[in-house]
Design brief:
eight-stranded antiparallel β-sheet, two-stranded antiparallel sheet, 1 helix, 4% helix
Length: 217
């Protein structure tokens, strides 16, 4: 395969994987969720500006000046969804699932962290797939760009109920974790991802399911 410099388009799929506080994958069942209804995923670097020092000499002239490099701390994320998916929201925020008599997922009760006894933001890994576009068509091989954030934390964000289709929004941030190919689907040559990463990918993207994924990790 020749080197590619593609122009990715679309947000085709996301996968959330439930993590423990130490970053390991929680045992199944109901430990991951795949959705084909994401509208937008915003990745906003959080930077610590480099230290700046100036030496002012006689006649108010700058004798010396130093500007240190900016430091990348983490990524702030915004996720917008085109459907109400209680299982996904539970995994993102720690919400309590609401079920009917048939144990079908019918809603969620979102937590408010106003005391230490209430649940904190649960960690989860986030993956996203985009179409890998070259020229005027999707590339034949590889076909996708796969983004991986090995540990993320989320809360509800501003969401508007109006005379348009609802788009539920969440905000989150990343934390360093080691993602060592738990689904056994990395391309040859890629073994682990640390804080975050992306690569070209030609496997079949995971199947979406309206509920927790039925396949096991």
């Amino acid at each position: 395969m020749a080197n590619l410099c593609p122009s990715p388009i679309h947000l085709c799929r996301i996968r959330l994987t439930r993590l423990s506080a130490t970053g390991s994958i929680v045992a199944p069942p109901s430990n991951h969720y795949v959705s084909d209804k994401p509208m937008m995923l915003t990745i906003d670097p959080s930077l610590q500006e480099g230290e700046e020092k100036n030496l002012i000499g006689g006649c108010d002239c700058v004798q010396a000046s130093y500007r240190g490099p900016d430091k990348l701390l983490r990524y702030n994320l915004t996720l917008q969804m085109a459907a109400l998916e209680p299982g996904l929201y539970e995994m993102l925020t720690g919400a309590t699932i609401l079920t009917n008599a048939s144990t079908e997922l019918i809603g969620a009760s979102f937590p408010i962290q106003v005391s230490c006894s209430n649940p904190t933001q649960p960690p989860s890994a986030l993956e996203a797939w985009q179409d890998l576009w070259v020229g005027d068509a999707q590339n034949a091989n590889p076909r996708y760009v796969r983004w991986i954030f090995p540990m993320t934390f989320w809360q509800m964000d501003t969401t508007t109920l109006e005379n348009e289709f609802l788009q539920v929004q969440f905000k989150g941030y990343t934390r360093q974790n080691t993602w060592s190919n738990p689904y056994i689907d990395f391309p040859t040559g890629v073994s682990t991802i640390g804080t975050q990463g992306a690569f070209f990918w030609d496997n079949t993207i995971p199947a979406a399911y309206c509920g927790y994924s039925t396949t096991s990790t």
